[in-house]
């Protein structure tokens, strides 16, 4: 019978203190590295949000003012929404926001899902088609707006080209028509974002267990029933994520409107973001511009906060 001698390593107080200091430094290092970014974000994002909220309750004009006037700026926006005749630029902005958001989000979701379903059929040339669909998302809104402005301009783009080809009866002047100019913004926005939505849906489709679909096909489910009752319901999280992204992009679409229409004839293509910039920096109505910015923030929060709450609630289960 043999015995094995074991010995305990006894740490001296000096070595124990050194190890403890090293572990504390290792724990603190990530916080030290992230601290500057955290402070900058805290000041220049959330700090300025609070500052904008404060300015919306003042009588600020060209420069900030500290004289509180209550909700006078919000009252003006309320009157411009429901009591102005003819319609005010704010009424036009929120009406355009409703049209743009509804069509932009709806068409992007439908078109993105359709493209994803087509690519999910393992068609030939999928590797070439995916980057083609995704390429517009790599462009900025400025580039997209300028390109579509040239394409839709009656004197330069589509209409002029078809006239040169002999189709002289064709007319497409939406970009210069105050009643239809907002729809040109929808066209450009859908062209840019639908490929990104397609990529989201395609990832969701590729993540569905194939055994579920095989079982449904064995039970006699048709292709339409398979997508309507099984696949599309399983894509609900992707629908929600795509909706959040598109809604956020729709609310903050400023540069696309400026590059494509320059605001449209008489400001007929304005969105709330264009209204906010115009009144804050050009018409010297900083309080009104700040109030419109806070309303935009509340709109985005009304969309994102329930989504975050549902996500956190599911993770806690």
Structural write-up:
The model is unreliable at 1-9 (pLDDT under 50). With 317 residues, the protein is mainly α. The protein has helices at 13-55, 72-82, 89-119, 126-134, 141-152, 158-164, 181-206, 210-218, 223-234, 236-251, 255-261, 272-282, 286-316. Helix 2 (72-82) crosses helix 13. The chain is built from 13 helices and no strands. The protein starts with 12 loop residues before the first helix and ends with a helix. 71% of the residues lie in helices and 0% in strands. It is globular.
Q: Which sequence of SSEs, written as H and E, runs from N to C?
A: HHHHHHHHHHHHH
Query: What is the 3D shape?
Result: globular
Radius of gyration equals 28 Å
Mean pLDDT across residues: 86
Summing up helix and strand content along with how strands pair, one would put the structural category as mainly alpha
Biggest sheet, open or closed, and with what strands and sense? none
Question: In terms of topology, how is this protein built?
Answer:
Elements lengths: L12 H43 L16 H11 L6 H31 L6 H9 L6 H12 L5 H7 L16 H26 L3 H9 L4 H12 L1 H16 L3 H7 L10 H11 L3 H31 L1
Q: Summarize this, please?
A:
This protein has 13 helices and no strands. The longest helix is centred in the first third of the chain and has 43 residues. The protein is mainly α and 317 residues long.
């Amino acid at each position: 019978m043999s015995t094995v001698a074991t010995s305990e390593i006894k740490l001296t107080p000096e070595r124990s203190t050194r190890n403890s200091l090293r572990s504390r430094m290792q724990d603190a290092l990530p916080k030290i590295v992230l601290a500057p970014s955290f402070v900058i974000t805290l000041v220049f994002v959330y700090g300025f949000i609070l500052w904008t909220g404060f300015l919306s309750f003042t009588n600020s004009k060209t420069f900030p003012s500290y004289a509180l006037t209550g909700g006078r700026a919000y009252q003006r926006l309320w009157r411009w929404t429901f009591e102005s005749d003819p319609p005010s630029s704010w009424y036009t902005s929120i009406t355009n926001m409703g049209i743009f958001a509804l069509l932009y989000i709806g068409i992007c979701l439908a078109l993105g899902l359709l493209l994803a379903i087509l690519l999910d059929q393992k068609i030939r040339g999928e590797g070439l088609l995916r980057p083609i669909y995704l390429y517009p998302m790599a462009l900025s809104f400025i580039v997209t707006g300028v390109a579509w402005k040239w394409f839709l301009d009656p004197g330069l783009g589509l209409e002029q080209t078809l006239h040169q080809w002999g189709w002289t009866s064709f007319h497409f002047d939406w970009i210069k028509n105050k009643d239809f100019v907002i729809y040109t913004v929808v066209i450009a926005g859908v062209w840019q974002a639908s490929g990104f939505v397609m990529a989201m849906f395609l990832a969701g489709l590729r993540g569905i267990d194939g055994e579920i679909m095989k079982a449904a096909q064995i039970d006699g489910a048709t292709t339409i029933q398979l997508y309507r009752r099984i696949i599309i319901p399983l894509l609900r999280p992707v629908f929600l994520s795509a909706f959040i992204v598109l809604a956020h992009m729709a609310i903050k679409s400023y540069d696309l409107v400026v590059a494509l229409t320059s605001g449209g004839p008489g400001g007929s293509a304005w969105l709330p973001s264009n209204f906010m910039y115009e009144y804050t920096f050009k018409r010297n109505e900083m309080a009104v511009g700040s109030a419109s910015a806070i309303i935009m923030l509340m709109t985005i929060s009304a969309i994102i906060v329930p989504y975050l709450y549902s996500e956190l609630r599911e993770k806690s289960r």
